[in-house]
Amino acid sequence: MEPFYEWIVERTRKLGKMPIIHGVQYVDSLDPYIERKLYTVNTGHCSAANYGYLKGYQTIQQVMGDKMLHDKVRMVMYETGNLLIRRYQLNRQQHQKYISRILKRFSNTHLTDHVERVGRCPLRKLSPEERLIRPALEAYQQGLDVPNLTSVIAAALLFDHAKDPEVPTLQDSIRTDGLEGTIANHLGIARKHPLHHGITKKYEGLKYARAIRRGLPQSLAMPRILPAH
């Protein structure tokens, strides 16, 4: 269904002489490649699903056909890429080519990948060690800006598909503990952390935009202005 493949083998895991196998890349450590996959493929796929869900798209392929959302997903992957490049001294040009290949995979019209499936289990995907929160926090610690990651985290908090088993817990937490409490308790981002305020601000903006698209009166959809912490 697609030409993309990747087969990476860690040298230290192999006993004896390394066989020459077409398509195999031998490396000293798998860590950079595991994180590259998680922070590029998984984070990008999740981003496409959450942005697409808010816009009302049914498939990832439809999302990627929307130039504005395509660019938003790409910018999220550039932010995680900046972290990977700094941590593992990756070649920037090669990593951007890798991102381009992944975006083409997401856009493959021969596949049908439903937004609800890719975006499912939002609480798990918003947990501190997962594909959105972990790179955002680590990038911030490295002094890197992450406005696009904070935006897609906010979008994930708005994922409210009725048939998803984790949605009731997430949305009940937002109603009872407030958005700030949910970010602190479930995402592990303290109220005083700068990313906390960034996420809440993006959440209010995305919620307002979705309400307007759904035809709610502007007075009811008006976002709440939050003070900086």
Architecture overview:
With 229 residues, this protein is mainly alpha-helical. It has one domain: N-(1-d-carboxylethyl)-l-norvaline Dehydrogenase, domain 2. It is built from 11 helices and 2 strands. The protein has helices spanning 31-55, 60-64, 67-88, 92-106, 115-118, 122-125, 133-141, 147-157, 167-186, 194-213, 218-221, and strands spanning 7-10, 24-27. It has a two-stranded parallel sheet with strand order 1-2. Helix 3 (67-88) crosses helix 8 and helix 8 (147-157) crosses helix 10 (194-213). The termini are far apart. Residues 223-229 have low confidence and may be disordered.
The H/E string reads EEHHHHHHHHHHH
User: How many angstroms separate the termini?
Assistant: 49 Å
* Global geometry: globular
Strand content: under 5%
- Report the helical percentage: 55-70%
For the report, how would you describe the main beta sheet? 2 strands, parallel
CATH topology: N-(1-d-carboxylethyl)-l-norvaline Dehydrogenase, domain 2
Keywords:
mainly alpha; N-(1-d-carboxylethyl)-l-norvaline Dehydrogenase, domain 2
In short:
This protein is 61% helix and 3% strand. By secondary structure, it is mainly α.
